[in-house]
Amino acid sequence: MPAMLSRRCADESDTLRLGALLGAALRARELPPLLITLHGDLGAGKTTLVRALLQSLGVRGRIKSPSYALVEPYTITIDGLEFKRSVQITAYHIDLYRFSSPEEWLDAGLGDVLDGRSLCLVEWPERAPGLPVADLDIRITTNDGVRDVLMRAGSSAGAAVIDWMASAAADA
Predict the structure, then answer these.
(1) Which of 48, 76, 108, 119 has the fewest Cβ atoms nearer than 10 Å?
(2) 80 falls within a domain
(3) In terms of C-beta density within 10 A (0-12 exposed, 13-18 middle, 19 or more buried), how is residue 90 classed?
């Protein structure tokens, strides 16, 4: 089971496809509560990747960057689980770019959001020392418009997502 997955995205549509693949992996794993961190410079494609992921999970309407609001919550419905009914999970898209001190994320109440029961997608996690270890850490680097995306698992749940994505890509 690979603990890492690397992808090159030549353009925005490749980034959108990668986000949709990540969403498909989460859905295939019955959307476990995960902490996913996203690193990259401004404009690297973090929000683009998150937007595609959330859309692939059924979120409709505008999915905007949480830069000013800090947190954008989204409700995701999971159908057809073993009890044959729908379950809803909340996904939180969090942007820590505006933080300047390590305590700010706790003072903002984000420790409560990172409760282990939700899907948390955190941009700029390096601005919050003390943040729990991510289940899946995503690093996006850009060079001449090409995005190199490296995903690393920090838990068995994150490794299972990467394994599913690697298998799906091999089958394609």
Answers:
(1) 108
(2) yes
(3) middle
Q: Report the alpha-carbon distance of residue 136 to residue 154 in Å, rounded.
A: 6
- Looking at per-residue pLDDT, the higher value among 110 and 42 belongs to 42
Q: Specify the pLDDT at position 159.
A: 95
Choose among 51, 63, 73, 64: nearest CA to 119: 73
**Cα–Cα distance between 158 and 123 in angstroms, integer?**
17
Residues 31-46 have a mean pLDDT of 92
CATH number, position 80: 3.40.50.300
Domain span including residue 81: 11-140+154-171
Smallest Cα–Cα separation from 71: which of 113, 118, 127? Answer: 113
Residue 107's pLDDT band (cuts 50, 70, 90): confident
The pTM is what?
0.89
Residue 5 counted as domain residue: no
